[in-house]
Design goal:
The chain is an alpha/beta fold and 182 residues long. It has helices at 2-11, 20-23, 36-45, 61-83, 141-152, and strands at residues 14-17, 27-30, 49-57, 102-111, 116-125, 130-132, 155-157. The protein starts with a helix and ends in a 25-residue tail after the last strand. The model has no long low-confidence stretch (mean pLDDT 93).
Amino acid sequence: MEELVARLEEIAASVSRADYDAKGYHLDVTVAPDDVEKAALVLDEAGYTLEAITGVDWLGEAARKAEAEAKAAYAAAKKAAEEAGEEPPEMEPVDTSGLKDEMEIVYDYTSYSHLFRVMVRCRVDRDNPELPSIHQVFPGADWHEKETHDFFGIVFTGNPDLSPFLLPEDADYHPLRKDFSA
């Protein structure tokens, strides 16, 4: 496993071990969009199979995180001022206008010979959710990418056919996006 971890660390933004009993996987890997195929190649060469690909819509998460951080900083500043006997500062409004929302693509890989699961994650801009297909490495990825495209609108460049197959042919919506309304 150490060799696999070392190879993934060469291409990944982060690699961390996870508690299988709590998370359901052993290794959590975050890669840039351009590196998903490299990670797939490393895992294929190590004998892993692709179990699933799915998406996560993080709509509003960047703004919520910025607001939570600002509130925590304000609470700390207010407490320090009160302890010093000073007038507490006013909370400044949080400007979230420049923050981008993201979509996350999650790849589940398993080695049945080692009984080891790896989760590979990648985030893309929600306004342009695009990343390379891994169907050249794992031909079965075509189906997973097509399903993820149907439900989230994530585009897998290089996938030979992203036409709807779980939604109606004329569907111009993606029902698992947080801003979808029926």
